[in-house]
């Protein structure tokens, strides 16, 4: 097991569900209610020192009991080490804790996850859509039940020169 | 029946009817003003809208409004095979298409655990560094133009044109190149192309000195870049900035050195790092990077190894083009790869690449099928926009153009 994973597992024995190393990437699966505490530890502990936020992402697994997965990736510039932390989010309680108080860069990244996948973040300062229009009525496009062509909102637009009615 | 609007204008200046040119000034009314900038402003590098809250000419809050160029690239990726996504990556950062291809192909190769032949690695590195020079020349020209120094624009675009012609001969396109392939590159350099690049390597350094002289002796350039859009190293890291924007603040985070890939380990070069974290330092970093890139290209051109330019893994990589129409097995291979794709192993990877604008990363989740189950693009421009408000507060309205120029932002990549 990777020494970092071991260290985190010792600090949070009840939170870490699995630690996988594949193709050189270290992935930790963490319980949702402890995700913020684990990330705080990753950032603040001088032996881990994950000071750089790489990306925040999300995956939709429609058949799983915990449908969504929120994925954080961090990097330690001093130690040149990368880690991925993720946790499952069920559909009926689609909320995760925001990391904006630890990494300011998480602000826009979490907004994008909300915009695309509909996962809400607790304690986020400004959780509104970022790429799609504010009045986008079709839901969250990166969910697997969203058709690639959209749900028809675009067909209701009128264009300049087009006859209306 | 619509009601007439109430006149809400308040008198600020009382004009003395006897001396109309000499208004008596009462206490000036101050209030915050909202100003929309963009999305069609010429210096917003595409379609970025910024809502500015102003107090006089000072920026109190700057809210970027994005998404005008959103095309759902991540959704489209889930609908096509791995090979079919390569042309989509051209349209992310359309100024540096080669680097996007590179970043994507590297990510898929990491997912497949595919080894690329050394000759292909060298060609990839050379072309990537040429693309970096193009990206930085483009930035230098447009940033100078936005700030008011027009001359540099013409010169940098002239040199950029030489390199775009090189791309044209290499792959048939100037901007949307799609030259990289999973497992190698589409075609080899011809001796003529190598000679062209050699000539450019000799031609470029004195020209670059000339542009730097233009700008470093320009008082307007200096006063409009020094001390503008300052961000400390700690904040820059906390925001997740990358590339020259981060290195200008004195952090030597460069994936080419931190996780050496392709042929970056085989040549001598250094990472330029700024001190003050202002626009001028980022400009200096980019100019220095162009010098380093030119040196890298010159070194690597001298020692390109012989061999194939494409890995030979028939289940994944494409057959050589000249065989496709003459050899039945190759034709079937080509057909199968483009109609069904290849089965990637189940798993997830993240692979970051140091593009001209910053760390361009691809996070790919595979469920074992022929299409990416989820493909997330870590676009540096988008993440840089997250720090925009933080960096713009307190500056004058005239600086706003400098501030979003300083990231080298491209909206195609930001909105995806």
Question: Could you explain how this protein is built, in words?
Answer:
The complex is a heterodimer of chains A (165) and B (416). By secondary structure, chain A is of the alpha/beta class. Chain A has one domain: NADH:ubiquinone oxidoreductase Nqo5 subunit (Beta Polymerase, domain 2, 2-Layer Sandwich). Helix content of chain A is 19%, strand content 28%. Chain A has helices spanning 3-11, 35-44, 106-117, and strands at residues 16-22, 25-30, 52-60, 68-76, 81-89, 95-97, 120-122. Chain A starts with a helix and ends in a 43-residue tail after the last strand. With 416 residues, chain B is mainly alpha-helical. Chain B has one domain: Cytochrome-c3 Hydrogenase, chain B. Chain B contains 17 helices and eight strands. In chain B, a hairpin with a 2-residue loop joins strand 4 and strand 5. In chain B, helix 4 packs antiparallel against helix 5 (151-171) and helix 4 packs antiparallel against helix 11. The chains are: A alpha/beta (165), B mainly alpha (416). Chains A and B meet through strand 3 and helix 3 of A and helix 1, helix 8, strand 6, strand 7 and strand 8 of B.
Radius of gyration of chain B: 25 Å
What is the count of helical runs of chain B? 17
What fraction strand of chain A?
25-35%
Strand order of the largest sheet of chain A: 1-2-5-4-3
* Strand-residue proportion of chain B: 5-15%
Q: Quick one: CATH superfamily of chain B? A: Cytochrome-c3 Hydrogenase, chain B
Low-confidence stretches of chain B: 8-12
Give helix and strand order of chain B, one letter per element, not per position: EEEHHHHHEEHHHHHHHHEEEHHHH
Please provide the count of β strands of chain A.
7
Largest sheet of chain B: 3 strands, antiparallel
Oligomeric category: heterodimer
The domain tally of chain A reads 1
- Specify the CATH class of chain B: Mainly Alpha
The percentage helix of chain A is 10-25%
**Overall radius of gyration of chain A:** 19 Å
Average predicted local confidence, pLDDT of chain A: 87
| Average pLDDT level of chain B | 86
* Strand elements of chain B, count: 8
Biggest β-sheet of chain A, characterized? 5 strands, mixed
> Could you estimate the helical fraction of the residues of chain B in percent?
40-55%
